[in-house]
Amino acid sequence: MYKIAVLPGDGIGPEVMKQAIKVLDKISEKHNISLQYKFSDVGGIAIDKYDTPLPEHTLKICENSDAILFGSVGGPKWENLPPDKQPERGALLPLRKHFNLFANIRPVKVFKPLKDSCSLKDHLIEDGIDIVIFRELTSGIYFGQPKYISEDNTFAIDTMKYSVSEIERIAHLAFETARIRNKRVTSVDKANVLMSSILWRETVTKLHKEEYPDIELSHMYVDNAAMQLVRNPNQFDVILTGNMFGDILSDEAAMLSGSLGMLASASINESGFGLYEPIGGTAPDIAGQNIANPIAQILSAAYMLRYSLKHDEAATKIEKAIEEVLSKGYRTKDIYTGKKGEILVNTEEMGDLIVENL
Ligand code: IPM
Ligand code: MN
Questions:
Q1: Among 31, 216, 339, 348, which residue is least crowded by beta carbons within 10 Å?
Q2: What angle in degrees, to the nearest 10, is found between the helix axes of 312-327 and 347-356?
Q3: Rounded Cα distance, 24 and 314, in Å
Q4: Nearest ligand for residue 53 CA
């Protein structure tokens, strides 16, 4: 019996989470996986109810679970609160740190039926796109100390700090994943300027030499990587990078898939415990209208089965069902182009279709 902390959060979170739960119910029944959900509030809704974005009882539920299925947090209503009370800084970053979720895995896949939604020219994505980004998530400039705005408000400091062990543990995961994929790792840094990047590059190079000589390793500066991602995305297999570079590159890469509503991520720690979330955010402009794309949330449930619960087969089935539904022409509004053969569906309908195709 697996205990799952379900934190739908704000905006479209609750409505897309509902679809993910439907999919989990069906797949767990088929594969004899016993799941127990514990729902709890996080983000803006928790601020409204308990005056904090990450209430103690929510954290307790997460601590007593095998994985966290996360929706999204934030919205205009809470944007003007002091920084540490805001949903993102006050809930998501502390959760990552608290559970030591150092590895953020962001698969970027263009499902073949959706090639037309990709903003790149056809010949660049002929065979679809299949990249995995490994982003370090609990260190670097997001968390390095000192970090403050001076009392007289004339300057501010963030610190980009990486230790060898922090670099090694994320690099191990990237190399191991490359081994079961296309055996290529591109490590992204800014070693022509930053000291932390020099250490990053040295550490990755040494680890590669000692333990992963069968993998093809290349290094790329982050500005070049941003350019190469839109010039020729298929040169990448596994991208390994730090916290801030990974944040930026993964949004860029996400748009290759046509919509932010299509991608999810896994954030895991040393013991395989993880937090699973769509990367698209709360989309307050369309919340509550039953038009949001639930696929990213459903994919995050698939990753949870794969990475934390070790039910790879069930995860693959969900991915196949999504592909099937897309190839039959069903589209939510964000990926609907009006072409012949496309059928516009709402959030609930997309969820039902994926369940039917499992
Ligand atoms: C992400 C988000 C977060 C990040 C924000 C909401 C703090 O952009 O998960 O990529 O920067 O890590
Ligand atoms: Mn981001």
A1: 339
A2: 120
A3: 9
A4: 1
pTM: 0.93
The rounded distance, in Å, linking the Cα atoms of 287 and 225 is 34
Is the shortest distance between the CB of 15 and ligand 1 below 6 Å?
Answer: no
Once rounded to an integer, what is the mean pLDDT over residues 306-311? Answer: 95
Assign 119 a pLDDT band (cuts: 50, 70, 90). Answer: confident
Contact 87, 73 (CB under 8 A): yes
Nearest CA to ligand 1 atom 8: 247
Q: Which atom of ligand 1 is nearest to the CA of 92?
A: 7
**Integer angstrom CA distances of residue 11 from 21, 78, 101, 111, 287:** 17, 12, 24, 26, 5
Residues 150 and 250: their CA atoms lie apart, in Å, by 31
**14-18, 25-29, 253-257, 342-346: lowest mean pLDDT where?**
253-257
pLDDT digits 0-9 by tens, 256-277? 877 788 899 999 999 999 999 9
From the CA of 247, give the closest atom in ligand 1: 10
Q: Is the CB of 92 under 6 A from ligand 1?
A: yes
CA 268/CA 303 separation, integer angstroms: 11
For residue 277, give the ligand nearest its CA.
Answer: 1
Q: Residue 162 — φ and ψ, nearest 5°?
A: -135, 135
Ligand 1 centroid – CA 247 distance (Å): 7
> Which residues are catalytically annotated?
142, 190, 223, 247, 251
Q: How many CB atoms lie within 10 A of CB 85?
A: 15
Q: What is the DSSP string of 246-274?
A: HHHHHHHHHHHTS-GGG-EEEEE-TTS-E
- Helix, strand or coil for residue 33? coil
330 has pLDDT over 80: yes
Q: What angle do CA 26, 28, 33 make, to 5 degrees?
A: 165
Task: Give the integer Cα–Cα distance in Å for 290 and 312.
Answer: 30
Which two tokens mark 296?
Answer: 């990213």
Count of helices and strands (H, E) across the chain? 12, 14
What is the distance in A from the centroid of ligand 1 to the CA of 244?
9
